[in-house]
UniProtKB/TrEMBL annotation:
Natural source organism: Nocardia vinacea
Domain called Ketoreductase: residue spans: 7-203
Keywords in alphabetical order: Oxidoreductase
Name by which UniProt lists this protein: SDR family NAD(P)-dependent oxidoreductase
Top-rank lineage group of the source organism: Bacteria
Length: 287
């Protein structure tokens, strides 16, 4: 069974932007797709059925297989109902793309608890809820694929996105452990950090840049990470505008102290501690 043929794949936030492209491509390649979207605004307010319905209709018109789902994946019940929809319609779930997201930008000085929490709830908690609901099926069938939407704003920081960046890097922390815990059941967990012109970026990046970033450029990468051919796990891939590359954490040799160092002794070794020349891929020293 090559690629994603007959695989049951749930895409959260698939009623527009990147998620829509993922759903269209996966269905074109023979997957059975659950198109989830709450149908609200960019800041998470409101809801509706037309976004998910429109994408499902597009898929069906092209001869593909898909069902719509309007659950709010930021809640445990919504995520459980979403996975139930996959199982009820297609018998199981083989893959989850946790792509749903909202924006509540603002400098940290002005970051309200409400804007912090709403963003964590959709991105980070949503990832937890949806993947957790799918996890028993992955383990039972010894096959599972997870892709979470990370962001260069989390990997590298971005002004005004403390809430968003924290949630996005939190998802990378999540897949790092899911990769370890899922390994013996053939469950792979990876992250995509996309760059694309969508409603999320329409007023953030300049038009000349956005013109070079059609969301379709990202879909094939996510499709590969969902496929039977993929064997990588805990990989973070940036994709946009035709360029696709991996981002990874590295560590240097550092310094070794045989007795608890004083502040002055740390200061004396600081270059040795921070110089990344000769650095190698990092690993958990306790793992
Ligand atoms: P988008 O706003 O078009 O898509 C997000 C979708 O998620 C929307 O259709 C929205 O209705 C849905 N959604 C929001 N909250 C939901 C909830 N609680 N339950 C179900 N659905 C919900 O934006 P875009 O750009 O397509 O973003 C997709 C993902 O990629 C997001 O996670 C975003 O943070 C991430 N991303 C996008 C980048 C870009 O350049 N467009 C850059 C980095 C990350």
């Amino acid at each position: 069974m090559p690629g994603v043929t007959d695989r049951v794949i749930v895409v959260t936030g698939a009623g527009g932007g990147l998620g829509r492209e993922y759903a269209l491509l996966l269905a074109k390649e023979g997957a059975q797709v659950v198109v989830n979207d709450l149908g609200g605004a960019r800041d998470g307010s409101g809801s509706g059925t037309s976004m998910a319905d429109t994408v499902v209709q597009e898929i069906r018109d092209a001869g593909g297989t898909a069902v719509a789902n309007y659950d709010n994946i930021a809640t445990e019940q919504g995520a459980a109902d979403l996975i139930k929809s996959a199982v009820d319609n297609f018998g199981t779930v083989h893959g989850v793309i946790h792509n749903a997201g909202i924006l509540r930008d603002g400098s940290f000085a002005k970051m309200t608890a409400d804007n912090w929490e709403s963003v964590q709830k959709v991105h980070l908690w949503g990832g937890y809820h949806v993947i957790r609901a799918a996890w028993p099926y992955f383990r039972e069938q010894n096959h599972g694929r997870v892709v979470v939407a990370a962001s260069t704003s989390g990997l590298f920081g971005n002004f005004g996105q403390a809430n968003y960046g924290a949630a996005k890097l939190g998802l990378v922390g999540l897949i790092n452990t899911l990769a370890i815990e899922g390994a013996r059941n053939n469950i792979l967990a990876n992250a995509i950090a996309p760059l694309a012109a969508t409603r999320m970026t329409e007023d953030i990046a300049p038009k000349e840049m956005l013109d070079k970033l059609p969301p379709a450029h990202v879909a094939g990468v996510v499709g590969y990470l969902m496929s039977d051919e993929c064997t990588d796990t805990a990989t973070v891939v940036v994709a946009g505008g035709g360029r696709v590359y991996r981002v990874q954490q590295f560590q240097n040799k550092g310094a070794v102290f045989t007795t608890p160092p004083s502040i002055d002794e740390v200061a004396a070794q600081w270059n040795q501690i921070t110089d990344m020349s000769g650095a190698e891929p990092g690993a958990n020293p306790l793992g």
